[in-house]
Specification:
Number of helices of chain B: 10
Mean pLDDT of chain B: 87
Shape of chain B: elongated
Number of helices of chain A: 10
Number of domains of chain B: 2
Strand content of chain B: 25-35%
Oligomer: heterodimer
Number of domains of chain A: 1
Radius of gyration of chain B: 23 Å
Largest sheet of chain B: 7 strands, mixed
Strand order of the largest sheet of chain A: 1-2
Strand order of the largest sheet of chain B: 6-7-8-3-9-10-15
Shape of chain A: globular
Helix content of chain B: 25-40%
Number of strands of chain A: 2
CATH architecture of the largest domain in chain B: 3-Layer(aba) Sandwich
Distance between the termini of chain B: 21 Å
Structural class of chain A: mainly alpha
Largest interface: A-B, 29 and 35 residues
CATH class of the largest domain in chain B: Alpha Beta
Low-confidence stretches of chain B: none
Order of helices and strands of chain B: EEEHEEHEHHHEHEHEEHEEEHEHE
């Protein structure tokens, strides 16, 4: 360990890895349960983009797990540190706000990808899944994780109590991830909801990610990349300014 | 040689509370400095401003010549802070906590120094214990250890002995004294005035965000506190004898400046027909200084 960034990244990864049953195994199990239930009900009845439903669902569950766990990692780490007061351990050393941001977001991406990888491994057995354009898989997993990791940093800094963070998670993150095409193609929605879905950036993360598997998607992966990339850029600027201002961290 | 700490006209307001009001303070390298004041006087705010946890509205602070805002990386390397709250990270062991803290300061291999700190604070046997398993006193020791991992020349301890048992207090002070003798500058806030009196060579007293007394411990004691003759008598003493004296719990306290005066005081008590049942000489103490200063008697800056 050398330097603030690498140590903070190491500490953040070690933190979730020490409680991996809760931070990795539990979300993998949850995703597996979704798969079992939905594929039991819908397999054989639904085909999307010419893909069997279970195969279609698998990438959706993987990226949903990446996104939710990336958010959970940075937000819960920060709120815990703030509530218990041990946030001073990272505020007293010579760590810049840029290092702070990069470490928390990257650790969130690592947690998201570890869980996502776990979900993929656990669900692969249930349906044949192809890896048509694997670069898209990697790009959308990392960018999606980074976006939710940044949102987690913002939420963790903003929230003063656990229930405020839970509200952020239950009323914003969960609906956005659930209603973004994890379980269905947005093209199957009525026109109004289809239009609305195109304003949800998480739709593009899921759609682009799924494109990496099947080579077909609702939107062009390049459009998805542009939307997701812009979101990440905007969030990065916003979060860095928040950290620079010392908002709720340095009085 | 730059000052260990230089605080220039620092003010900070939280809403309607003026936490710091134009604080001006300079602490030389190698000092053992005491920062005293009642709760809410601004001690912790001042320390937080020094550590970069609080940004002052105006004024500037420097640690070993480094500005805590403009040159925060260098300034933070010069400073070790033991926070007042008993905080810890429940995910890690004692050794992991110290390794991580070292890494934050850019120190890759710090094992020899970590072992030395653990030894000096009586933590060696707890090195691999999880932080959650430690008693409050042990957690306090780890906080001190964490503040020292990067060998800071200036060490600030914010009420380090609040709620700590006697044994730890003594271990802690012995260690801090050794660090001071080795050249580290120590700044201490405490509620235990006898501790400040015993350890600090210079003291500042804060009240409502202002420094109301600043002098060497010896000078403060001489200026604000006197020797006194303390007596228990079998009857009430005549009024003229009590000029300047006080009574509490059956003890009469008569102040004097030089020991020559004791004989005269005793003679007057005898002449008044009072029999003495108990007697002692009270020495100047910081508590008295503290009480007088806080009651508004300006001590000035010396």
């Amino acid at each position: 360990m050398r330097g603030g960034f690498s140590t903070l990244l190491y500490k953040e990864v070690l933190r979730f890895w020490k409680v991996a049953a809760q931070t990795v195994a539990a979300p993998v199990l949850t995703a597996l349960l979704y798969l079992l239930i939905f594929s039991h009900v819908l397999e054989g009845h639904v085909k999307i983009h010419g893909v069997a439903y279970t195969a279609f669902l698998i990438p959706g569950l993987v990226i949903m797990s990446v996104l939710q766990n990336a958010f959970a990692n940075s937000s819960s780490s920060l709120i815990q540190s703030k509530v218990t007061g041990n946030i001073v351990f990272v505020l007293l050393p010579p760590i810049s706000y840029l290092e702070f941001f990069a470490a928390y977001v990257l650790a969130a991406v690592v947690r998201g990808c570890v869980v996502g990888g776990g979900v993929l491994l656990a669900t692969l057995w249930f349906a044949p899944v192809s890896f048509a354009e694997p670069w898209w898989i990697l790009i959308f997993a990392v960018l999606g994780g980074a976006i939710l990791g940044s949102l987690g940093v913002i939420a963790g800094i903003w929230a003063e109590k656990f229930d405020q963070l839970a509200a952020f998670q239950n009323f914003l993150i969960m609906p956005l991830t659930f209603l973004s095409g994890v379980f269905y193609s947005v093209h199957s929605l009525p026109p109004f909801w289809q239009q609305l879905s195109h304003w949800n950036p998480i739709f593009y993360m899921i759609d682009g990610f799924r494109h990496g598997f099947f080579g077909v998607s609702d939107a062009s992966p390049w459009l998805s990349l542009a939307v997701v990339g812009s979101c990440f850029a905007i969030l990065t600027v916003f979060t860095l300014n928040l950290l620079k201002s010392g908002y709720k961290l340095r009085a | 040689m730059s000052s260990a700490i230089r605080i220039e006209q620092v003010s900070k307001r939280f809403g309607s509370v003026q936490a710091l009001d134009g604080v001006e303070l300079e602490i030389a390298q190698g000092e053992f400095f005491g920062l005293l004041g009642p709760n809410g006087a601004g001690k912790t705010t001042l320390i937080s401003a020094l550590a970069g946890l609080v940004r002052p509205d105006s004024g500037r602070l420097r640690v070993m010549g480094k500005d805590v805002q403009a040159d925060y990386r260098a300034a933070r390397r010069q400073l070790g802070v033991v926070p007042q709250e008993l905080v810890f990270d429940p995910f890690f062991s004692v050794r992991e906590s110290l390794q991580i803290q070292s890494g934050y300061f850019g120190i890759a291999d710090n094992e020899a120094w970590i072992d030395e700190i653990l030894e000096n604070l009586g933590l060696t046997s707890k090195a691999d214990a999880n932080m959650r398993m430690l008693s409050g006193g042990m957690k306090r020791r780890v906080l001190v250890a964490q503040a020292l991992v990067h060998r800071p020349p200036v060490i600030v301890l914010d009420e380090p002995t609040a709620g700590v048992d006697v044994e730890l207090r003594q271990t802690l002070w012995a260690f801090i004294r050794r660090l001071n003798q080795a050249g580290h500058t120590i700044v201490l806030t405490t509620h235990y005035l006898e501790e400040a009196e015993m350890l600090c060579n210079r003291i500042a007293m804060l009240k409502a965000g202002r420094i109301v007394a600043l002098d060497t411990t010896g000078n403060l004691l001489r200026r604000f506190s006197t020797h006194s003759l303390r007596l228990r008598t079998d009857r009430k003493m005549p009024a003229e004898l009590l000029a300047g004296g006080t009574e509490s719990g059956g003890w009469w306290s008569l102040p004097f400046d030089t020991f020559d005066q004791v004989e005269g005081l005793l003679a007057r008590v005898r002449t008044a027909g009072c029999g003495i049942s108990d007697l002692e000489i009270g020495k100047p103490d910081l508590e008295e200084v503290f009480v007088r200063v806080m009651q508004g008697q300006q001590a000035g800056q010396g």
